[in-house]
Design goal:
Helix content is 80%, strand content 0%. By secondary structure, it is an all-alpha fold. The longest helix has 32 residues, at 95-126.
Length: 163
C-alpha cells in the first residue's frame, strides 16, 4: 500500500484504511471480528508510531501548533479507551457491540479529521518533502515493529490504556 514515503500521505492512507474497516465492522455480511482485530492492530501501531516518531519532530516547527500536537496525543488516549471498550464486549454484533463501535467511530473520525486539518496541513506547508520522507520512513519502521509485536491484542490495549 505504501508507495510513498511522505509521512503525511502515509498517515492519510492509514486513516482511509481505518474508515474501510469501520464499514466492515458495521456490515453483517463481513467478518466483523477479523475487521476489529485488524483495526485494533492498525490503530495502536499508527498512534504509537505517530507519538514516537512524528509528533516530537513536528513540535520543533514554529508554524505547527504544539497544542494541536498535544491535543492529538490526548485524542489517541480517547480512541484507545473506546477501542478497549469495544474489544471487551464478548458478543460481536450484539447491541452493546454496535453501541461501542459507534463510540469508537466517533472518537477516531473526530481525531483523524482534526489531525488532517491542523497537524497534517501544517506539515505540508512547513516541512520540506525530504524531511517528510525521513519521518515517513521512521513512522513506517515503528508502525511495522508495533504490528509484528501484536500491539492490538486485548492485553496490550489494556496495558496502554492503564498506563
Amino acid at each position: 500500500m505504501a508507495e510513498t514515503q511522505d509521512v503525511v500521505e502515509l498517515i492519510l492512507q492509514d486513516h482511509r484504511r481505518m474508515e474501510e474497516l469501520f464499514h466492515q465492522m458495521r456490515s453483517v455480511e463481513a467478518d466483523r471480528a477479523a475487521a476489529l482485530q485488524e483495526f485494533a492492530d492498525l490503530l495502536i501501531a499508527h498512534a504509537l508510531a505517530e507519538e514516537a516518531k512524528v509528533y516530537p519532530a513536528l513540535k520543533r516547527y514554529e508554524n505547527i501548533d504544539d497544542e494541536e500536537v498535544e491535543h492529538g496525543e490526548d485524542e489517541h488516549d480517547e480512541g484507545n479507551q473506546a477501542l478497549l471498550d469495544l474489544l471487551e464486549v464478548e458478543e460481536v454484533g450484539s447491541e452493546e457491540w454496535d453501541s461501542k463501535l459507534e463510540e469508537l467511530v466517533k472518537a477516531v473520525t473526530h481525531h483523524a479529521d482534526e489531525e488532517e486539518r491542523s497537524i497534517l496541513n501544517g506539515a505540508r506547508e512547513n516541512v520540506a518533502m525530504e524531511r517528510r520522507e525521513e519521518l515517513g520512513a521512521a513512522f513506517l519502521a515503528e508502525r511495522e515493529r508495533q504490528l509484528k509485536a501484536g500491539c492490538g491484542s486485548l492485553d496490550n490495549v489494556r496495558r496502554i490504556v492503564s498506563s
